[in-house]
Amino acid sequence: MQIEFKATKRDAQGTGASRRLRRAGQLPGIIYGGAGEVSLITMDHNELYHLLRKEAFHASVLSIEVEGAKESVVLRDTQWHPFKQQVLHIDFQRVAADQKMHLKVPLHFVGDDVSPAVKLGGCMISHTINEIDVQCLPKDLPEFISVDLSALEAGQSVHVSQIKLPAGVELVMHGEGDPVVATALLVKGAATEGEGEAA
């Protein structure tokens, strides 16, 4: 289900204008990219604050209604107040149905509690990466990607290349190598009594 919210256009620019909007419970933002020009918008701060707490808001194509016209966008940048629970500014980028987009998608780890590493090896699973960069058409964008750890053995790691990607989704790699996503680390003092008997 697509997340939808409303915005209104704003004309006033500058720090003073933005401060006045924030005092009135509004959140200034922009929409850029695509065929349209940069649109200055304002939204309800509390509504967006709660939406930003949802993981899906950060890795989904969103529907923003600006004065009756709906646009498909993705979240690109959020500026927060240094110490208050307040969003200062938010940037969205337009997406076109026929153009591939590039976005970070969260990883959901499943099966680690039933893996041999945890059940038999006395290991703890360490998640070293919690999101990956992908490229796909807006219709193929997953809200998250599952990483199955149920077969992980003690001392083993899962690498980015081993993640099963949904159809139409490509991995965007940065630099060389194949980064580790999760590792089974032996917890000190967790060696089992039966270890010496197997030899």
Automatic annotation (TrEMBL):
It comes from the Bacteria. GO terms for cellular component: ribosome. The keyword Ribonucleoprotein applies. The keyword Hydrolase does not apply. It holds the Pfam family Ribosomal_TL5_C. Residues 6-92 form the Large ribosomal subunit protein bL25 L25 domain. CDD domains: Ribosomal_L25_TL5_CTC. InterPro entries: Rbsml_bL25/Gln-tRNA_synth_N, Ribosomal_bL25/Gln-tRNA_synth, Ribosomal_bL25_b-dom, Ribosomal_bL25_C, Ribosomal_bL25_long, Ribosomal_bL25_short, Ribosomal_L25_dom, Ribosomal_uL5_bac-type. Keywords: Ribonucleoprotein, Ribosomal protein, RNA-binding, rRNA-binding. Residues 100-183 form the Large ribosomal subunit protein bL25 beta domain. PANTHER family: RIBOSOMAL PROTEIN L25/GLN-TRNA SYNTHETASE, ANTI-CODON-BINDING DOMAIN-CONTAINING PROTEIN, RIBOSOMAL PROTEIN L25_GLN-TRNA SYNTHETASE, ANTI-CODON-BINDING DOMAIN-CONTAINING PROTEIN. Belongs to the bacterial ribosomal protein bL25 family. CTC subfamily. Part of the 50S ribosomal subunit; part of the 5S rRNA/L5/L18/L25 subcomplex. Contacts the 5S rRNA. Binds to the 5S rRNA independently of L5 and L18. This is one of the proteins that binds to the 5S RNA in the ribosome where it forms part of the central protuberance. This is Large ribosomal subunit protein bL25. The gene is rplY.
